[in-house]
Structures are given as structure tokens and as C-alpha cells.
């Protein structure tokens, strides 16, 4: 491999070299058989693109917005835990790279720098992802601090009443070291029972009673818009609209929770149809190429909104391989690929990307 990576998968290879096996496996792994982990990426590969030719593509505009905030392309930074395991600068580097790329980062609840530190690291729009612990006071405190330090939305992760069974972490006896921050998270003091201390920790702290009525509770403690992350069915998408969510994120948590949940790209249309353009629909899971971003937008294009995708692991691979610069390069690479895809498919702005630009197994022409 050339020393300069030219795509996300080469960044992954560099990250694998750079990281201790235990940490690489923590980032890369999924739940149980990792069926959904593979399918998240393979489902994109089963979709083909139907290009239109003889279109003037001398100017391409990849920009869009989410909740009214402009972003330079429909590629956002998904929340992921513990960036300091990848690089000492951790989320500070990720935040700076996201800001420089004119995109929005969703800071994980389980970040290794706290909300104020990340807010102070650079001036940019960012959202805060929330897990709800038993007792609720930690969640309430963090929501208040996120709002005070300028985060623009709360992303409530709803697919994690308990931690999925990530066998690589159990096998490796994944121990999260003491990092700089994290409100009580982390965890050398949790009895790992010979397995992963992350699992033992999460299962003793996450509140498994969290339910739809708690969205009202969350709304009562913040004036920020609330997005629900981890929606995979039209039934739950409708409920999200009903409880007043400002948006949904179609996600299976990067296949780290329920194995054999569907590849996210296969349920985007179902969710988009259910919400009928009332709220934005973001999708994540398995996006590794600009063509994947294009496919996700095409499948979501029945709605009036042209909603973004977000990437999890590619960001971490960039961070592990080359720090802040690596994150910037990964975002730029995906954006460049997406722009090229638009040009070759005959689309000059996001509104030109339609459902008829892609073909899935289910389509008949
Ligand atoms: C995650 N994800 C995640 N989601 C969340 O809501 N809170 C979190 O703290 C984390 N942490 C986390 C850690 C790691 C290492 C990974 C890989 C993922 C899920 C994440 O937001 C997103 O849904 C997936 O990463 C998207 O899939 P890809 O892009 O990684 O395939």
C-alpha cells in the first residue's frame, strides 16, 4: 500500500497498524456474529447507480443543511466513544477537523474530553449525544451543561437499553483505561467478571426503563431540539414524529447492538415514507464511499428534505492513523468522492439526486 491512503479502507489498515489490537477491535467490532456489521457495508454494494449523461456538471454544489445549520456536504460526524484511545488529542482533534471541514460533529456522551473542553476547542456548530443512566441526574446535568456551552441539539440514543454483546471485547478482556474525563464513565473499578469492563459498566449504569414517555421528560429539561438515534422501523419513526422529535437517525449503532437488525440503507425508504418530510432523517452505518452517500440520498429523496449521512468508524480510523489531519482527510476524501459521483451521475446539486438514480434488488424497470 502506498504511504498516503487514498480511500477509507486504506485508513482502516493504517489504524489497525497504529493501534493496540484491543483498541482496534473495540472500534472495528460489532455484535455477536457480526452479520449486520458486514451487511451494513454489503447492502450498499448491492445498490447500483443509474447515471444521467450529457448534463453540464462544470459546477457541483454539495452543500446542504440540518436543522437549519449549513454544512458543506451531507457527511456528518457520528457520535463515537473514547477518541483518546485513538489519539491523545481525542475529541478535541475530531472537533477541530469537523469544524475545518464545515460539518457537524455529534459529541458522544462517552467522550474522553468533557462537553466544555470540546466546546472550547473550536468555534463550530455541534450536537450532543445522550445516554440516560439510572437515576437520571447525570443525564440532566450533562444536557444542561451541553446547552450552556452552546451545543445546538440533543441526540438521544434509543437502541442501547443494554450493551450489545461484542465478542471481540469479551475475548480481549477490553479494559477501558482511566482517561481524561468522562462523568463517572470508565471504570477500572467495575468488576469485569473476566470479560469486557465496558459491558459490565454499561449494564450497571444504563437505564433500561427508558421509554417513549421519557422524551417528554427530556423536552421538559431542555429547549434544544431532540433527535432520536437508532430508529429502524416505520412504526418507531411515526412515534418519533408523534412525541415531537426534531429528527431521527436511522442507525443500528454501527452493528454493535442487535445483530441481525437490518442494514440501515435497506430501511431508509421505510422511515422516510413514514415521516413524510415532517422531520429530517439522517442515516448512518457502513458509509465508506462517496457513492454510498449518493445512494443514501437517492433512497431518501422522496421527501422534501435532503438529509445527511454520518460516519462513525472512518473518523476514528482517520484519527488513529494521522490525528486531526487524518480526520480532515477522511471527510475530504468522502466529500470528493461524493462530488465526483454527482458529476458522473449528472447531478449538480442535492435536489437533482432522485430515487430513480439508484437501483435496488427490489426495483423493476
Ligand atoms: C459508536 N456509536 C455510538 N453511538 C452513540 O450513540 N453513542 C456512542 O457513544 C457511540 N460509540 C461508538 C463507538 C464506536 C467505536 C463505534 C464504531 C460506534 C455508533 C455510531 O454513532 C454510529 O451509529 C456508527 O458508528 C455508524 O456506523 P459506521 O459508520 O461506524 O459503520
UniProtKB/TrEMBL annotation:
Glyoxylate binds at residues 131, 166, 253, 256. GO terms for biological process: defense response to bacterium; hydrogen peroxide biosynthetic process. Residues 1-363 form the FMN hydroxy acid dehydrogenase domain. It catalyses: 2-hydroxyhexanoate + O2 = 2-oxohexanoate + H2O2; a (2S)-2-hydroxycarboxylate + O2 = a 2-oxocarboxylate + H2O2; 2-hydroxyoctanoate + O2 = 2-oxooctanoate + H2O2. Keywords: Flavoprotein, FMN, Oxidoreductase, Peroxisome. This is (S)-2-hydroxy-acid oxidase. Gene3D superfamilies: Aldolase class I. GO terms for cellular component: peroxisome. CDD domains: alpha_hydroxyacid_oxid_FMN. It comes from Linum tenue.
Amino acid at each position: 500500500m502506498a504511504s498516503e491512503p487514498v480511500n477509507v479502507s486504506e485508513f482502516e489498515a493504517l489504524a489497525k497498524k497504529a493501534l493496540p489490537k484491543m483498541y482496534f477491535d473495540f472500534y472495528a467490532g460489532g455484535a455477536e456474529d457480526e452479520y449486520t456489521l458486514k451487511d451494513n457495508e454489503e447492502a450498499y454494494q448491492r445498490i447500483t447507480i443509474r447515471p444521467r449523461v450529457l448534463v453540464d456538471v462544470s459546477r457541483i454544489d454539495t452543500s446542504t443543511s440540518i436543522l437549519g445549520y449549513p454544512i458543506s456536504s451531507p457527511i456528518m460526524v457520528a457520535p463515537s466513544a473514547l477518541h483518546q484511545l485513538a489519539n491523545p488529542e481525542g475529541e478535541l482533534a475530531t472537533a477541530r477537523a469537523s469544524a475545518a471541514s464545515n460539518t457537524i460533529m455529534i459529541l458522544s456522551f462517552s467522550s474522553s474530553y468533557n462537553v466544555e473542553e470540546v466546546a472550547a476547542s473550536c468555534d463550530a456548530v455541534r450536537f450532543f449525544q445522550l445516554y440516560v443512566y439510572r437515576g437520571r441526574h447525570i443525564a440532566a446535568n450533562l444536557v444542561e451543561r451541553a446547552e450552556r456551552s452552546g451545543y445546538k441539539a440533543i441526540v438521544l440514543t434509543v437502541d442501547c437499553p443494554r450493551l450489545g454483546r461484542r465478542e471481540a471485547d469479551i475475548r480481549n478482556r477490553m479494559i477501558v483505561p482511566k482517561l481524561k474525563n468522562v462523568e463517572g464513565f470508565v471504570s477500572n473499578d467495575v468488576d469485569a467478571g473476566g470479560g469486557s469492563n465496558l459491558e459490565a459498566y454499561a449494564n450497571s449504569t444504563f437505564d433500561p426503563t427508558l421509554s417513549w414517555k421519557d422524551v417528554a421528560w427530556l423536552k421538559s429539561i431542555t429547549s434544544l431540539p431532540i433527535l432520536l438515534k437508532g430508529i429502524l422501523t416505520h412504526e418507531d419513526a411515526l412515534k418519533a414524529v408523534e412525541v415531537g422529535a426534531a429528527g431521527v437517525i436511522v442507525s443500528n449503532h454501527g452493528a454493535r447492538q442487535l445483530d441481525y437488525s437490518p442494514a440501515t440503507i435497506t430501511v431508509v425508504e421505510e422511515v422516510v415514507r413514514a415521516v413524510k418530510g415532517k422531520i429530517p432523517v439522517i442515516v448512518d452505518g457502513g458509509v465508506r464511499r462517496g457513492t454510498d452517500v449518493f445512494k443514501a440520498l437517492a433512497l431518501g429523496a422522496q421527501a422534501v428534505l435532503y438529509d445527511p449521512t454520518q460516519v462513525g468508524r472512518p473518523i476514528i480510523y482517520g484519527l488513529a492513523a494521522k490525528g486531526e489531519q487524518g480526520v480532515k482527510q477522511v471527510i475530504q476524501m468522502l466529500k470528493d468522492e461524493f462530488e465526483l459521483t454527482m458529476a458522473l451521475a449528472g447531478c449538480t446539486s442535492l435536489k437533482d439526486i432522485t430515487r430513480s438514480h439508484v437501483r435496488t434488488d427490489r426495483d423493476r424497470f
